[in-house]
């Protein structure tokens, strides 16, 4: 007898995904797409996932124990369309023997690119420059116009030296930067030539760095890791970049630090309560903000789409 599966997609994905699922060799498949899942009531969400053997989740949609129970005993796999897993109750998944997958590879290089875009844009005040031109107030070249921070030879602190953090560090070679990193263990590949990076404690690194780039998973230990006290350790000329998860930074403390000149600028691609964000981030001239574009290239999102389906398929076939 041919197998039968119900797959529920929790969020807006590339239109190719349902067809890829149908062509994956899983037998008869019912694909239920919920593009507005993040805005659905729990009752409607629970009803929609009933009987699902697989869920495809996106990082802004929580996959809770209650949602897993609503799906029922047929649920075998949660295939997350993201590098992180903080939206999924991993303990509940383990208890229910549900496989959880993610897609780290396609996120790696484009997110490192975005980190550098934010670093450079915030340091060189590109947002203020663009606004000056939009407002028709640019009066021509001036030696004191929107002076930013020099990047050549600066000190870069990587907080979280995993794959993305290492990719950001690798890009610093062209700027002849001194690289420091914070990690749970030594990273010999970073410490070798040509980077010669040095592992430091967070507080030491914050005091020495001209640029701080965050690349940590969100967990209780990293929530508000960058708070008012740690921001006060940074140089008044320093730039903070966050492309990991919004809640790693205490946004109230960051806004206060930016207003008071405790740090020079911030580049943000993630926020505490996405898609909501604090309006101050658009009002402060020393913030360069993007709407979570880390891995947003067509090629990499297509790669992620295929990988999500491959992960789902393998888990169901192995199960």
Describe the structure.
By secondary structure, the protein is α/β, with parallel strands linked by helices. The chain folds into 2 domains: 4-102 and 299-318, 3-Layer(aba) Sandwich (Rossmann fold); 106-285, NAD(P)-binding Rossmann-like Domain (Rossmann fold, 3-Layer(aba) Sandwich). It is 37% helix and 16% strand. It is built from 13 helices and 12 strands. The protein has helices spanning 16-22, 42-49, 65-71, 90-95, 104-123, 126-134, 163-170, 188-191, 202-208, 228-233, 251-260, 280-283, 298-318, and strands spanning 4-10, 28-34, 54-57, 77-80, 99-101, 155-159, 178-182, 198-199, 211-214, 239-242, 265-268, 287-289. The chain has a 7-stranded parallel beta sheet, with helices on both faces. Strands 2-1-3-4-5 form a 5-stranded parallel beta sheet. Helix 5 (104-123) runs antiparallel to helix 13. The chain is elongated and about 70 Å long. The two termini are 16 Å apart.
Layout of helices and strands:
Blueprint: E1 4-10, H1 16-22, E2 28-34, H2 42-49, E3 54-57, H3 65-71, E4 77-80, H4 90-95, E5 99-101, H5 104-123, H6 126-134, E6 155-159, H7 163-170, E7 178-182, H8 188-191, E8 198-199, H9 202-208, E9 211-214, H10 228-233, E10 239-242, H11 251-260, E11 265-268, H12 280-283, E12 287-289, H13 298-318
Parallel strand pairs: 1-2, 1-3, 3-4, 4-5, 6-7, 6-9, 7-8, 9-10, 10-11, 11-12
Helix pairs in contact: 1-13, 2-3, 5-7, 5-13
């Amino acid at each position: 007898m041919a197998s039968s599966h119900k797959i529920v997609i929790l969020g807006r994905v590339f239109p190719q995904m349902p067809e890829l699922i149908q062509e994956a060799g899983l037998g008869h498949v019912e694909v239920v797409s919920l593009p507005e899942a993040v805005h659905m009531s729990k009752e409607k969400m629970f009803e929609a996932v009933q009987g699902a053997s697989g869920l495809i989740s996106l990082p802004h949609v929580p996959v809770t124990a209650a949602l897993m129970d609503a799906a029922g005993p047929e649920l075998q796999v949660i295939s997350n369309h993201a590098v992180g897993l903080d939206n999924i109750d991993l303990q509940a998944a383990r208890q229910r023997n549900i496989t959880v997958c993610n897609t780290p590879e396609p996120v790696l290089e484009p997110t490192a690119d975005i980190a550098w875009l934010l670093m450079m844009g915030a340091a060189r005040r590109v947002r203020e420059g663009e606004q000056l031109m939009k407002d028709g107030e640019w009066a021509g070249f001036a030696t004191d116009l929107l002076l930013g921070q020099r990047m050549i030879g600066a000190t870069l602190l990587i907080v979280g030296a995993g794959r993305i953090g290492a990719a950001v560090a690798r890009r610093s070679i062209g700027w002849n930067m001194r690289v420091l990193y914070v990690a749970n263990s030594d990273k010999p590949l970073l410490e070798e030539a040509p980077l010669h990076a040095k592992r430091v404690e967070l507080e030491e690194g914050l005091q020495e760095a001209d640029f701080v780039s965050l690349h940590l998973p969100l967990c209780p230990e990293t929530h508000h890791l960058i708070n008012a006290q740690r921001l006060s350790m940074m140089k008044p000329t320093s730039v903070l970049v966050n492309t990991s998860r919004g809640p790693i930074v205490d946004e109230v403390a960051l806004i206060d630090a930016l207003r008071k000149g405790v740090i020079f600028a911030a580049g943000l691609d993630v926020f505490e309560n996405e898609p909501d964000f604090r309006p101050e981030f658009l009002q402060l001239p020393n913030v360069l903000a993007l709407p979570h574009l880390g891995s947003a290239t067509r090629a990499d999102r297509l790669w992620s789409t295929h990988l999500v389906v491959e992960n789902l398929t393998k888990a169901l076939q192995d199960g």
